[in-house]
Amino acid sequence: xxxxxxxxxxxxxxxxxxxxxxxxxxxxxxxxxxxxxxxxxxxxxxxxxxxxxxxxxxxxxxxxxxxxxxxxxxxxxxxxxxxxxxxxxxxxxxxxxx
Length: 98
Known about the structure:
4 helices, mainly alpha, disordered C terminus
């Protein structure tokens, strides 16, 4: 759960109650925590920026060094600050944020 002062009393009690519910339902607390961590990691890694960087790395051998560099710089300067943290599904054409 963490120690004081990093975890306030109300938060610690909530975590305790959640843990009790999991155990009472016959769940495995360690497996639940592992699943939650995996989901959080997937959420963090699954951003437009991470997918774009992976795409850039994949396509880079087919481009000149100058073009690859310019493209990445443009993404870093103009695109990532605005939609870099969004999930890759932001490509929906009906969305005003895309």
